[in-house]
Amino acid sequence: MNSNLSQIFRIQKYLERIKYPDAYRIAREISEFLDTNYDFSEKDILNRLKNGQPWEYICGYTRFCENIFKVTKDTLIPRIESEQIVYDTIEIIKNSNIKNVIDVGTGTGCLIISIAKILDNNFYSFWATDISQETLKVAEYNEKNIINKQIIHWIKTDLISDIPQLNKLTFIIANLPYITTKQYLQLDKSVKEYEPRIALDGGKDGLKHYKKLFKQIKEKNLPVKYIYIETEESIFNSTKELIKSCFPTSIINEKQDYFNKKRFLLTTLPELK
Hints:
This protein is an alpha/beta fold and 273 residues long.
């Protein structure tokens, strides 16, 4: 035990020296990881971190909504800020007549799996899409590992192109790429060189994928009641304007993240006649 504490303290000091975020938590995780993964050495891991490789890609997992999710080079690392989508969505659904939940651009599946684990799947249908088959394999693995059974419909498609015509009220959640191409090129090495660009780059104005999603929602005429999306401060207002132009009669609620930054937009649409 004392040797582990000494190791944690040593790793923590090193991480603080190289300005690695959340040094104490990561130091503890590294120490626990080394106890059972003998192919890795402390020196090797610290060198990788120093060179910019995220800890999550070294160990192969991350924690999100009190669950452990597998991550690979094909998936974006879930961020703690996105947990708010899960808890807000569950609260809204429990107080509404929503029956379908669609997670667009699911990645690791962290959003839809966290929601499906808490809600009673006998009352709801869960759907998740991604354009990458390799990414969907990771998401399906996470569902099996966390929920222990398959209750989510996984679909390889571009946004919601191949979602069937649902006839009950639907809640869409989406954390699509929203970083402008210019911002992407200026990102830290640990993000730009390791996380998939396809999961980050939202085009010239950061709205490329949301424009397409909203267009598909209108064309498919799905019975969508709520659209809950993540974005970021620099394009927050332009994202809101986009929603209003696509859905003029909608009600849009702004939401801040844990760090009091404008990050989420919850859109309520009038029910289809």
